[in-house]
Amino acid sequence: MYTAIIPVRKGSRRLPGKNTAPFSDTNLLIYKIRQLKKVPQITKIYVSSDCEEMLKMGEDNGALTHKTADQ
To answer: Which residues pair with 26 in a beta bridge?
Structure first.
């Protein structure tokens, strides 16, 4: 069994807001969580971020969370 970790930061240097920008029918973060949930060997998914909004999105979509230090 495996644990997946999705590291996301509040501020992207190359493409600001990329993790919460519209993507498909949702956003990039939620899309990635949904993809990982389809992998039977993955038993835990963590969203690791300095952004409360992204941590909340992770929780709302069944991921565990890890709060990192603000950058």
So the answer is: 23
Could you give the CA distance from residue 41 to residue 69 in angstroms, rounded to a whole number? 30
Q: 42: how many CB neighbours lie within 10 A of its CB?
A: 14
Q: Is 43 within 8 Å of 14 (Cβ atoms)?
A: no
The set of long-range contacts for 38-41, using a CB threshold of 8 Å and a minimum separation of 24, is 39/2, 39/4, 41/1, 41/2
Greater confidence (61 vs 9) lies with: 61
pLDDT digits (tens, 9 = 90+) for 5-56: 999 988 778 888 888 888 889 999 999 999 999 999 999 999 999 999 999 9
Query: Is the CB of residue 33 less than 8 Å from the CB of residue 50?
Result: no
